[in-house]
Amino acid sequence: MNDNASTVPVIAIDGPTASGKGTVAHGVAEALGWQVLDSGALYRLTALAATRRGVDETDEAALGQVALGLDVLFSSGRIYLDGDDVCEAIRQEAIGNLASRVAALPAVRAALLARQRAFRQPPGLVADGRDMGSVVFPDAALKVFLVADVEARAERRCKQLIEKGISANLADLLRDMRERDARDANRQVAPLAPAEGAVELDSSRLSARQTIQAILDLWKARAR
């Protein structure tokens, strides 16, 4: 990270899967007119690219190379991998589960670190993920750890999938989320946990709009 980039303010929003980080991060970024980083998309893209290329999920070195060489374009709210629009493909549950396993590998995390930090551009950045405040942007001006009951998160994800015309089973989603939470929290590299100085915000009973406003209020209080 160069000196100029380090002066660009960052709001880091971390939390478990389906806690609403992505929706909230985009809403906060839109309100402030800032850049946004969906770090989870990069791990999902790595998982999708590895699947397409037949790379074994146990081959850490090969997966690191896949992550390092991702041909990705973020444009007008769409995500392209090797020139293909993959917005729907990377949101498949199978890809999400593989992304969680791939994200535990040090070689993959190291390969994506510089790419994530490159999103830090004026006038500011809202970054969401698992280790935005602890590893990627430890100097973030505001760190938020967004949580929600696992049951509430599973219900949200189930509703999202059904609205997209994708069949979903609440019991299966609940089991997968519990497994993913445990994997994210117990991995050796950048485990999921609140960063030092992070504000914990429980969104279980908050709407997306209310959660966005809560973070904007925190930012206004910090920026005074």
UniProtKB/TrEMBL annotation:
Its EC number is 2.7.4.25. Residues 11-219 form the Cytidylate kinase domain. The keyword Lipid biosynthesis does not apply. CDD domains: CMPK, NK. Gene3D superfamilies: P-loop containing nucleotide triphosphate hydrolases (3.40.50.300). It catalyses: CMP + ATP = CDP + ADP; dCMP + ATP = dCDP + ADP. One of its GO terms (biological process) is nucleobase-containing small molecule interconversion. It comes from the Bacteria. GO terms for molecular function: ATP binding; dCMP kinase activity. The keyword Magnesium does not apply. InterPro entries: Cytidylate_kin, Cytidylate_kinase_dom, P-loop_NTPase. Belongs to the cytidylate kinase family. Type 1 subfamily. This is Cytidylate kinase. The lineage of its organism: Bacteria, Pseudomonadati, Pseudomonadota, Betaproteobacteria, Burkholderiales. The gene is cmk.
